Amino acid sequence: MEIQAVEEKNVLVVRISGRLDAVTAPEYESKVASLVAGAARVVVDFQELEYVSSAGLRALLMAAKPLKAAGGQMRFANVNGSVKEVFHITGFTSIFPIDASLAESVAAFS
Amino acid sequence: MIKVDHLSKSFGSVEVLKDVSVEINKGEVISIIGPSGTGKSTFLRCLNLLEVPTGGTICIDGKNVLEKKADLSLVRQRMNMVFQSFNLFTHLSVIENLTLGPIKLRRMERAVAEEKAMSLLRLVGLAEKAHAFPGELSGGQKQRVAIARCMAMEPEIILFDEPTSALDPTMVSEVLSVIRRLAREGMTMAIVTHEMDFAKDVSNRVLYMDEGIIYEEGSPSQIFENPLKEKTRAFIHRIRSIRHRLISPDYDLYAINAEVLFFCEKQIISRPTRNSLLLLLEEVLQLYTPYLSSAEVELTVAYSEKSGTIEIICECTNEDAIPLAENAGEDNFGLAIIRNLAERIDFQRIAGKSCLTVEMKKF
Fold first, then answer.
1. How far apart are the C-alpha atoms of B114 and B312, rounded to whole Å?
2. Structure confidence at residue A110 (pLDDT)
3. Is A71's pLDDT higher than 70?
C-alpha cells in the first residue's frame, strides 16, 4: 500500500493505492492520522485501491476520528469495483459521504 | 463364496496391501475404486494368484487357495480375469482365442467349444469378427473379445482390472454395456474402475481402497452420496486442497495469500473468485486472531473439481473458540463480509477441537 497527500483548493487529498488489509491497516491508521492533524477538509481518493478488508475499514474509521472530533470532515472519492462492493456489504456507504470523483469531493467542500 | 482375511502384499520394502479383509458373495457386483497406487490392481492380482500374497488367507467355498496343495489352474478357471491391456493372443483368431482355454484346460470338444464361443461372441456383439485377428480389431472390440474369452472358461467370478482404462473415450461405453449385461444376468464380478458413474449404477457394493486397506465400503449410494470418511469424500468429490498451520497471531497473511493464489492458478479458478476467496479467507482468519496467542489453527482451503465449490476449513485446538459470535459495541464488518460471501457456514465441536467450515458462494 502507498499513501500520498496533496493539497487541492484548501482540501487535503489523500491518495491510497494497493491493498488496505490486516497487514497495511495499522500503517494507514498512523500515517493518515498524522497527515490530517490540523486539517479540516480531507478527501480520501480510492482510485488506485485494489482491495479492502474489514481491518482496512476499521483503519479508515479510526483515522477519521480525530478529524471529526476537531470539527473537520472526511469525504471519499472514486470508490469502485471490489472496494465499493465491500462498502455496500458492510453498510460503510452510510458512514462517510462518498462522491463519484475527486472533483466532486473538492467541490462539495466549497 | 470368497472370503479374504488379513491379506497383505509387499514388493521388497514397499507394503502395497497392508491388511485387506472382505467377503464376496455369489451374484454380487463389487466395484473397487480409489486413487492410483493404492493397491486395487494388486488386490485383484492376489485374488487370482497372479501375485503371491505376503500374508493372510483367501478362501473359496471354505478352502484356502494359498495352501501349497491348492490347484492354481482350477482357482484361475473359477476366478477369471479381464485385463486393462486385453492380453489377447495376437497370432490366434478371435474364435481361437476363445476356444484355446476350454479345449486345452477343460478338455472340451473343439466343436462344442466353438459353438459356445460363437454364442459368447454374439453376446458381446462380435460374432462377425470370429475369424478376424486381434490386430484387425479396435480397442473396444478387443476388450469385448477378452470378456468373451474370459466367459468361455465358465468362471464363477470375473475380476476386471480397469477394463476401460486403455480405451478411447468413444469405445468405453461398448465395453461397459457388455459388463452391465453380465451384471444383469447375475454374474459375480469384482471391478477395479475409474468410471465412477458406471461403478455407481452397476454395483451392489463399493470398496474404496486407500493406504493399502479397504478404507471404506458400502452401498453405491453411501459411498458416492454420503461417504463417511474424509479421504473417501475427497476422492469422490475430486477435492484438491492446501493446508496451513497458524501458530501465532502474527501469522504471515501474504505468505498464505501467495499459497492460495498459486493453488487457484493450478486449479484454474477465475480471477474474481480468487479475489473473493482472499477476502473471505482474511476475514475468517481475523476471527481466529484473538485465539491464536494460546491455540493453533489448522487451515484448509479445499476445491472440489466435481462441484466447483470452495471451502475454507479452520480447525482450532481451542474447543471454546466461538469465532462467529457477534460482539456488542464492535463494528462486525468482518462477519458481514463473511455472511455475504458464504453459501454455507457450519460450526462444530469435535473431540476437543472447534471446526468452522465456510463454503464460498459461486460467482
1. 62
2. 76
3. yes
Dihedral sign of CA atoms B217, B200, B264, A25 in order: negative
Angstrom distances, CA of residue B201 to CA of A107, B179, B223, B239, B339: 70, 12, 12, 22, 38
> A65 contacts in B (CB within 8 Å)?
none
CB pair distance less than 8 Å for B282 and A55: yes
Q: How far is A107 from chain B (nearest CA, A)?
A: 30
Q: Suggest the residue from A20, A23, A89 to mutate for an interface test with chain B (most B CBs closer than 10 A).
A: A89
Closest Cβ–Cβ partner in A21, A23, A54 for B333: A54
Q: How are beta strands B297-304 and B79-82 bridged, if at all?
A: unpaired
Tell whether B331 is within 8 A of chain A (Cβ).
yes
Q: Three cell numbers at B322?
A: 466461538
CA distance B96 to B206: 35
- Distance in Å, alpha carbon of B269 to nearest chain A alpha carbon: 18
Give the model's confidence band at B328: pLDDT under 50 very low, under 70 low, under 90 confident, else very high.
low
Structural contact between residues B215 and B231, judged by C-beta atoms closer than 8 angstroms:
yes
- Looking at residue B324, its pLDDT comes to 76
Q: How far apart, in whole angstroms, are the C-alpha atoms of residue B154 and residue B144? A: 16
Helix residue ranges, H only, B188-292: 196-202, 220-225, 230-236, 253-266, 271-288
Structure-derived torsion over alpha carbons of residues B86, B88, B93, B99, reported in degrees to the nearest 10: -110
Nearest CB among B275, B286, B337 relative to A22 is that of B286
Position B73 scores a pLDDT of: 81
Assign B353 a pLDDT band (cuts: 50, 70, 90): confident
Chain B residues touching A89 at Cβ < 8 A: 336-337, 340
Alpha helices in A1-110 (DSSP H): 25-36, 54-69, 81-90, 102-109
Task: Please name the residue of chain A whose CA is at the shortest distance from the CA of residue B330.
Answer: A58
Chain A touched by B248 (CB under 8 Å):
no
Q: Nearest CA to B79 among B164, B178, B187, B182?
A: B187
Residue A57: closest C-alpha in chain B: B333
CA dist A81 and A49 (Å) reads 9
Question: What is the per-residue pLDDT for B68?
Answer: 83
Q: Which residues are registered as beta bridge partners of B317?
A: none
Q: Per the confidence metrics, is the pTM higher than 0.80? A: no
Out of A48-52, A97-101, B330-334, B356-360, pick the least confident.
B330-334
**3-class SS of residue B300:** strand
- The Cα–Cα gap between B285 and B321 comes to 13
